Amino acid sequence: MSVDRRGFLAGATAAAGIAGAAAWPGGATARAEGVAKAAFPTDSALRVLVTGDAGTGARPQWQVADAARALHARAPFSLALGLGDNVYESGPWADDDAQFAAKFEDPNHGLDFPWLMVQGNHDNSSVLPGDGGWLLRGDHEVAYHGRSARWYMPARYYSVRVPRERPIVEFFVLDLNPIAAYLPPLFAPYWAADGQFMSEQAAWLDRALAESPATWKIACTHHPYRNNGPHGNAGNYEGLNIEPINGIHVKRFFEDHVLGRCQFVLSGHDHSLQVLEPDVDCKGTRQLISGAAAKSVSGEHARGQAPTPALYENYRDLGFMVLDLTPSAVEVGVVTVDLASGAHTTAFQRRLA
Fold this sequence. Notes:
By secondary structure, this protein is of the alpha/beta class. It has a single domain (5-351), classed as Metallo-dependent phosphatases (Purple Acid Phosphatase, chain A, domain 2). It contains seven helices and 14 strands. The strands form two sheets. The protein has a seven-stranded mixed β-sheet. A seven-stranded mixed β-sheet has the order 5-6-7-8-10-9-11, with helices on one face. Helix 3 (99-105) links the parallel strand 2 (79-82) and strand 3 (115-117).
């Protein structure tokens, strides 16, 4: 069973005490001792596979990965971004959980390059799948960094410059789960919107962005700022006007620390494929959503908000995105997959910067 904010409200009050008690401080970090990690590219032209919400282990995930393998054979990827919900439906139970093999390693066989992984709400489940209320569960994904050659998540939030010397891009992987949870951490001040974890993350991000020498600065999150799909925009998640589960703190975090500083925000969460145009509030930062690597929203759209202008939207097909980065340009492609035949199609291709 999956859960959304609107459906979750009926049980949230009774569950809050259970999940809140479990969510004590846990700023996990991991080292890859004894594991030969996949090497980051050193080229000045990068091809990036962008997937999200993939970790089911079911046939659709494998079919989408098959399409990625076919593209990789013709035009190799440099690295990948996994935009959260890496282990459906409730996240891993330990860093040696068999789900890591079934829902990441096995489906992605042959895609042997670094995968920069983002924490999602399903990776931090507590009472109900996807409630985001047991934040310590996500620490198992950080620890798995020390077990896998491909899985890259040395901390809950981090950045990577590629290439390391004279980078053309820096990816800022953010963890907004504490302020986006369906089940807010009411009894755990460490995880609160003004608590230690989010305050330290904000200060780190401000400093890292200011110091970054990269041409392109890309924020990688699970939860989007702008979204025309059913989860809606930050501050209007699920069309609700109930703080904080409407994502008001997520909205403020983006506006205070990301927008106007990064050229792109890449997110999953919504099981759709969207290339959105920046509106005035975005301060020039463009939102891309690639959350259809295993599931689709079957045509649903957001409620109670004006749609954001889009260059491309798809709420039915599964697929992923491809970013081609050079020092002078960013091009995005959207690849969709026909589950009946397994065939894949480049449904959209455009230079965005």
